[in-house]
Request: fold
Amino acid sequence: MKFYLLSDNIDTQMGMRLAGIEGVVVHERREVLEALEKAMHIEDIAVILITTKLVQTCPNVISELKLRQKKPLIVEIPDRHGSTDIGEVMDAYVSEAIGVKL
Reply:
């Protein structure tokens, strides 16, 4: 089982490549959705890492996939553009999933 990266910048992609994680650099909403769809259909991909900036291009779609799909696991990661408020993002996902504000 492998990791796969969807990144908005080459720096994150190169860093992950050094760790043995392949991926693509995309910028537009359409590109993000196409790359995500393609990655989800690769059999040996267990975890898709996606940068915060890309999640913000299509938050509803990614949130729905996180809640609905069993495999692969979609994990948001901060990058050089991302904020350090990843905890707030996680709280929002949990709140949306259970319907209770944390």
Summary: Residues 86-98 form the longest helix (13 residues). The beta strands are 2-7, 22-25, 45-51, 73-77. The mean pLDDT is 86. Residues 3 and 47 are 5 Å apart (CA to CA).
